[in-house]
Amino acid sequence: MPWRDKQGGSSFLSYRRLTRIALWTAVGVVLAAVEHWLPSPLPWIRLGIANIAGLLALLGLGIGSAYMVSLLRVVLVGVLLGTLGTPAFLLSSGGAVGAVTVMALLSLVPSHIIGPVGLSVAGAWTHMTVQFTLVSLLVVRDPALFALAGPSLIAAVAAGTLVGWIVALLWRKLPARLVYLS
Amino acid sequence: MNLRTHFHGDSTQHMDTRRLFRPGDFIAILLFLGLSVVATAFGLRQEAGRRAEVIVHGEVVMTLSLAEEGLYRVQGLRGESLLEVKDGHVRMTQSPCPHQFCVRQGEVHLRGEIIVCVPNSVAIRIRGGANGEGVDAVAG
Predict the structure, then answer these.
(1) Inter-CA distances, A31 with A48, A54, A77, A148, B69, Å
(2) What residues of chain B lie within 8 A of the CB of A140, using their CB?
(3) What is the ipTM of this complex?
(4) Is the pLDDT assigned to residue B138 strictly greater than 60?
(5) pLDDT band at B136, cuts 50/70/90?
(6) Which fold has domain A15-179?
(7) How far apart are CA A79 and CA A66, in angstroms?
(8) Which residues 44-103 of chain B have a CB within 8 Å of chain A?
(9) pLDDT tens column, A43-88
(10) CATH fold for the domain made of B51-127
């Protein structure tokens, strides 16, 4: 059963999994704070470095944990920024769900074929697409907005490549007992 | 599924799981870059618009003629946004949002161009090209 820890835990939320989920959630919140603080040169362009934590969780802990890490981060950042319940919060949570779903599906492809870079690019692109869809549904109610999505999507591919490369580097350097359950 | 073998790779089978960039990564980059470039090409419509629709939470609340200069106030989700029509262009001059993306975006005038302020749920959309369509009534 994929929801059970093979390494001694009895249920999905074993202490080992819990501590690692907490670790990556905390790392994600800090990265989101750093990104929030960094000046953004243009609207509609974001680096998405918080996804480093989500990707490490996905690679090391699996799909369920990746959802938990990403969604907990979005909620915590929403609480910290006071955006809970606003359109902005809906955008970030929608983007996160979309991105993790696509990355989770791609993570089922053997890892010698597709690595962190591919997952990250697909996730960043999906994140941006979902956000544009939600904006056009909620704020503008006009599909014409998609005509303006192009440059942001190109930027998302670039940002996703950078984030994936960082994750691939970290994946080499981080000790296995930190990223895995055992 | 044993994640350790899956992601860190079984060294007897393939050493290439330690590569930073793997074949599928390049395919993903090219695929999504291609889709984005196609989207950008579709978005390039260089036709000046005639009027600007002001949208608050999905509803068109005002339609402004780009030929008439003026300053306008719009009540959004957080507060009042100020917009300015000048020289056939429209821009957001003031907005009660944290990042000020909408203000920093500057002016728009091409058909289909949009300024969106998500926090205040206010959007400005350019409508009406040079050929036809611009006959529509301009309401205050």
Answers:
(1) 9, 11, 10, 28, 44
(2) 55, 58, 114, 116, 123, 125
(3) 0.87
(4) no
(5) very low
(6) Arp2/3 complex 21 kDa subunit ARPC3 (1.10.1760)
(7) 20
(8) 45, 55, 57-58, 77, 99, 101-102
(9) 667 899 999 999 999 999 999 999 999 999 999 999 998 989 888 8
(10) mini-chromosome maintenance (MCM) complex, domain 2 (2.60.320)
Domain ranges of chain B: 3-43, 51-127
A46 contacts on B by Cβ (under 8 Å): none
What's the token pair of residue B7?
């992601």
Instruction: Using alpha carbons, select from A92, A89, A145, A100 the residue that is nearest to residue A122.
Output: A100
For chain A, what percent of residues have pLDDT higher than 70? 88
Closest C-alpha among B89, B101, B95 to residue B64: B89
Pairing of strands B80-86, B114-117: unpaired
Sheet harboring B51-56: ordered strands across?
B59-65, B51-56, B122-127, B114-117
- Record: contact B37-A86, CB cut-off 8 A: no
Reported pTM? 0.77
Q: Which residues of B are less than 8 Å from A160 in CB distance?
A: 32
Q: Phi and psi at residue B63, in whole multiples of 5°?
A: -125, 120
Q: Where are the domains of chain A?
A: 15-179
- Ranges of chain A whose pLDDT falls below 70: 1-12, 41-44, 142-144, 147
Contact residues, A window 110-149, toward B, CB-based 8 Å cutoff: 110-119, 121-122, 125, 135, 138-142, 144-149
Q: Nearest-CA neighbor of A66 among B7, B56, B137, B25? A: B7
**Burial letters for A73-108: b for 16+ Cβ neighbours within 10 Å, e otherwise?**
bbbebbeebebeebbbbbbbbbbbbbbbbbbbebbe
Residue type, B118: V
Nearest Cα neighbor of A50 from A158, A124, A149 is: A124
Residues in Cβ contact with A175 at an 8 Å cutoff, skipping those fewer than 6 apart: none
